[in-house]
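User: Fold both of these, please.

Assistant: Here is the first one.
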Amino acid sequence: MFSKATFRFLDELAANNDRGWFEANKPRYEELVREPALDFITAMAEPLAKFAPHFRAEPRKMGGSLMRVFRDTRFARDKSPYKTNIGIQFRHELGKDVLSPPLFDT
């Protein structure tokens, strides 16, 4: 699901972490990062249900298991607007936010 091109894109994002570059390369982000991550989450749903039935793999662009690419820079010294990793979290069914216990976080 993830290719060498995925990791090259993340390296490029780290070197060019600004809104202009990201907007110009957003189609590449969708193709190389978001879609493979959603495919991974989808593929994990069945195995996850077998060994951890109370955790959820939710392949949604927003509000699901894929964490957003935008960083919260309000209180950070580093004002880089984008994360340079792929954040995936399988949350417990009772957890309603990121503070619930994760099973997996990259």
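And the second sequence with its predicted structure:
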Amino acid sequence: MMLSERVRPRKIALLIGNEQSRVQLIKWLKNWKIGSKAVLLIGPPGVGKSTSVYAAASELGYSVVEYNASDVRTKKRLSEALSGTLENASLFGEQEKMLIFLDEVDGLSGRSDYAGIEFILEFIENATVPVAMAANVEDDPKLRKLSQKSQLIHFGPVNEDLIYIYLKTIAKREGLPVSEKALQQIAVACRGDVRFALNMFQTLIGDSLSSFQTDKQFFSEASAMAAILDSNSLEEAIARLRQYDASPLEKVRAIFDSIVSAKSVSPEERARALELISDADILLRQINKNQRWRLLRYLDRYLALALISRKLKAADSSIPWNLRLAIWNDGRVTKEFLSELPEDFHVGKNEFAVFYLPYFSFYFKNRSSDLTKFLQKYEFGDSEKRVMLKIATEH
């Protein structure tokens, strides 16, 4: 069993960090009655959102039925899962107390999920049992709809001093011979993610605790990327990736940025490198979903294979990731417009981009009903609506 599961707190008071948020959650569930709002927990991974839900439910006598919203993302699948749960619950009688937990509701993104989020909104408004939801990000347009219908509780990264004390307590209780320096390094490297800290702790203890205690200090971002991209062999790149003081997701993003910004890489080489980055991203998702943290060793291998021998340079990291992601998303949506609309209006892509798209955007700016009909006609969703309105404000 993973250490993070073995030491998972069963009582709300035994968690660390986010004290006020945990108090809010207990109060919400204790005072819940039919007609009360659902609760939406928002915060980064590994800070206690899911554990708090289970601990609060256990203390107040509720059974938890959990669904990962990114796995049941369409209206049909959500309806089948949630309706079936409520029907089965009635078999146990009125004394059975149930809480429905929808994790990763920010996974409901994209055109195919448009009806899924609408179904959740309808479901929580008419729910006859408490509904708790969790999300890692807050700035998604769909989550703003959920926020208006839910009680929001924010969770933040856990203080590294608290994580250090927590790890030290576990090490003492489990009889693990680990140095304070190692615990301090883990507490800093996990960046407020308690689950990641525990899994890093277990992996290093199980594999190479002694080397972790004596290894060189982790690289900073700038020196890490320069050293990784300058590696002369696969083994050297992997070793330097493992010394990079960043979360797995940040590593994937950093290597991705370097590949897409490279000017001296052929289209074929870039495509192959991006395929490996895609494989790494899929692997990371599976690791997070199934808590198989020992597979992290293979993540660095995928990333090293993506960059080795391609003469890449570190991308400019002065642009915040959220802004870079927004630029990428806007470009993707604009390409979608140009792939579907010009043919209907019998014009070329360049002409549509220069003349038609700005005109359409400006026309729909103050005509919300017409915009809704236009989006529905082409099966566009919130992303397309956001970009069109953004273009309208620029003209």
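The CA atoms of residues 43 and 137 lie 7 Å apart.
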